[in-house]
Amino acid sequence: MIKITHITDQKKRKHANVVICPVWKTKAQAQVALELKEFDALIKIPLNDFSGKKGETLLLYREKGIEKRVLLLGLGEKVACQAEILRQAYASAIKQLRAKKIKSCNVLLPFFEEKEAFSIIQASLEGLILANYAFDCFKSIPFNEPLETACLCGIDPSYASLLKKVEQIMQGVYLTRDLVNKNADDSNVEGLIQAAKNLSKDGKKLKIVVLREKQLEKEQMNLLLAVGKGSIHPPALVVLEYIGVPSSKEKIALVGKGITFDTGGLNLKNTGHIEAMKCDMAGSACVLGVIQSLCSLEIKRNVIGVLALAENAIGPGSYKPGDVYTSRIGKTVEIGNTDAEGRLVLADALSYVEDTYAPSVVIDFATLTGAIVIALGEEAAGLFSNDDSLVRGLQKSALRTDERLWHLPLYPEYTEMLKSEIADLKNIGGRPASSCTAAAFLQQFIKKAAWAHLDIAGVAYLSKPKSYHPTLATGAGVRVTVDFLEHFNEKDSI
User: Which domain holds residue 84?
Assistant: First the structure.
């Protein structure tokens, strides 16, 4: 990760390869967005190819100054500037500098009122760090290498803790991205167990329990076991218990779908869909990223992180369409399609965590349905819940982080669509409203906890780069969840 420093006096900044200078778009001409006269002359030069519109950049060279390069960064009109615009703008700047193989930069922020400082600093730094991510371990020659250092100039020392906080959250995002981007043979069941163990070294705040085949059989997690039957890598359930408030019994559970590779099983996926299925463990990777951030931030919450891990492979023991399995809570499930496996592993995991730890809130994360991608594209995750207050809390966090969540219904009719002639439930309800029926299936395994299901299939990994996200893993879910946990128990948060 890029090394971040800060300095209070903008005029006393040290040498760097380039300085990023924010610029407002005005009706007359571009205007420097801070009170620093050394850049006024640059803007006064008529520039037909730079207007200051949001995300626009122009690299200039000068003979005198602390830095020989100045990157003008358009923020658009001042009245319209919001946190997400700053996030995207500074991401644009970083991508431009990386293309030029620049290693160090000084970062100037727009002039702001004290009440706006927190939001402006956080959003700008998030954009910078998110866009600087690189996963190039498979490249024989490094491509578009990241910046090494960045100094935020004009930052009062009182905001040092905010800078550290953002870095700690970004570490969680980076971890999630790395795990999702790795080869499936690296982020397999054992690989994710090891990733969890790496986080559990702080025994005071975090402990780990791994349930393997025999324990899964004892717990009667037959749905989870069924999904993993065709693989040489046995399934497992990992529980990470983060205790931020030892005196409190209140717990929040985070449950992640961890299908380490999804062939579709005997209902084999075809070309065009199977290529990205190493990413089908993004839900579990998100939970690990959140736990990483919680440990670094030492947030005062008790959180149970659960990874439901299996590889949906094809082998002699593969579970079969038409078979019936008994879930942990005794409900029987007819397998209508082996490619609807994520809801099966989550069903047993949800019931286990609720019965074992009695959390007041349960949130699951899953790349669950292709239908959510058809409905929302790569712009938002689907949000389903049995609790309106929980929805409001998550939506407020979504607004603050711009990790969009779109609330979708759980009508009783969706459960009716899951009825089976030979079992209590079927694991698919047909093509209509298939994201909703998938959520309705999961709801059958929640007893009384406030529960939310986040279908992140469209946002967890991307088909092409976008804004501050690279191709493939985005780390979706980490920032919005950390924000939710920080604000938990505030009015309308739950």
Answer: 3-149
Residue 154 lies inside a defined structural domain of this protein: no
- Is residue 493 over pLDDT 60? no
Catalytic position from the list 343, 400, 426, 479: 343
Chain-centre distance of CA 229, in angstroms? Answer: 29
Please report the DSSP string for 45-87 in residue order. S--TT----TT-EEEEE-SSSSSSEEEEEE---GGG--HHHHH
Q: What is the pTM of this model?
A: 0.96
Can 165 be counted among the known catalytic residues? Answer: no
Catalytic residue among 78, 212, 269, 320: 269
Q: Could you tell me what percent of the chain has a pLDDT over 70?
A: 97
Residue 13 a catalytic site member: no
Q: Is residue 448 part of a domain?
A: yes
* Residue 385 belongs to some domain of the structure: yes
225 neighbors 217 (Cβ within 8 angstroms): yes
On whether residue 182 sits in a domain, the answer given is: yes
CA distance 72 to 92: 11
Do 214 and 325 lie in a common domain? yes
- 8 A C-beta contact, residue 34 and residue 111: yes
